[in-house]
């Protein structure tokens, strides 16, 4: 039996994965903890598989590889859950470098908090180049999350949830409450529509499980130069905004949704106009102001975009949980 699975979804990660492997090979404080590494290749067309094979040949920790052909982070995470046989699954992106005690800190916190369905990490940034001025205003959207030195419980009424990078979930929680298909599947080539991590965590929180921030679980998120440029950031924030109607309505009773949708539409319109008034020409010249404007504008568009593209039909088509899959027999690849 395995106590803890470190799942690393990756897409074209041949150059990023070695850093993750090196950090995982250096984990400490693991006496009495049985753990493994699971790489979920989400349709890579580079040498990702070969890099994983090299690691398998040299690693003292069991390393498994699976190919998930459905494109999107949500599918890759769901595949990891069903491939794992451990009670806890910790997700690392292929640009996340965990601290030497990350696995041990996650495992022990989960044992001390049995009602925790998900546990989030403290995430620092490692920027390849200096970020734009005032970048702290939007850095949290890139999974840069530091909420102090003490453990913190995410309360539902606060409507704040952590990113999926460095997130540890109880496998049985996922299997018992997660719908067979999330509305949002994550960014794919040609679409930056995101929000699948918030959708997933909302189901966990709605089911009565606690979601915690554990500052002892630290990792570094490597941010390359291209992710700080306008050509990446503006579509990125547009994708976040376009997904917001789904994430806003997840914990809302169906009869309340029309009224709440109107309220959000009016508030988003107010934010667009107020932002234009405050920043004027900076919306075109200042990258941070432009990203904020794109977020507000695409949030305003969100319900119309999602309906037009057919995303909202997924909620009514299949909202039943994975109850029939609570004790799957994982396939081996």
Distance between the termini: 19 Å
Quote the beta fraction.
15-25%
Please tell me the CATH architecture of the largest domain by its name: Alpha-Beta Complex
Rg (CA only): 20 Å
Largest sheet: 9 strands, mixed
Tell me the total number of β-strands: 9
Order of helices and strands: EHEHEHEEHEEEHHEHHHHHH
- Figure out the total of helices: 12
**How would you classify the helix and strand content by structural class?**
alpha/beta
Output the CATH topology of the largest domain. Spore Coat Polysaccharide Biosynthesis Protein SpsA, Chain A
Question: What value does the average pLDDT take?
Answer: 91
User: Spans with pLDDT under 50 lasting ≥5 residues?
Assistant: 318-333
Total tally of structural domains: 2
> Which percent bin holds the helix content?
40-55%
CATH classification class of the largest domain: Alpha Beta
* CATH-assigned homologous superfamily of the largest domain: Spore Coat Polysaccharide Biosynthesis Protein SpsA, Chain A
Overall 3D shape? globular
Descriptive notes:
With 333 residues, the chain is an alpha/beta fold. The protein starts with a strand and ends in a 16-residue tail after the last helix. The protein folds into two domains: 4-229, Alpha-Beta Complex (Spore Coat Polysaccharide Biosynthesis Protein SpsA, Chain A), CATH 3.90.550.10; 232-316. It is built from twelve helices and nine strands.
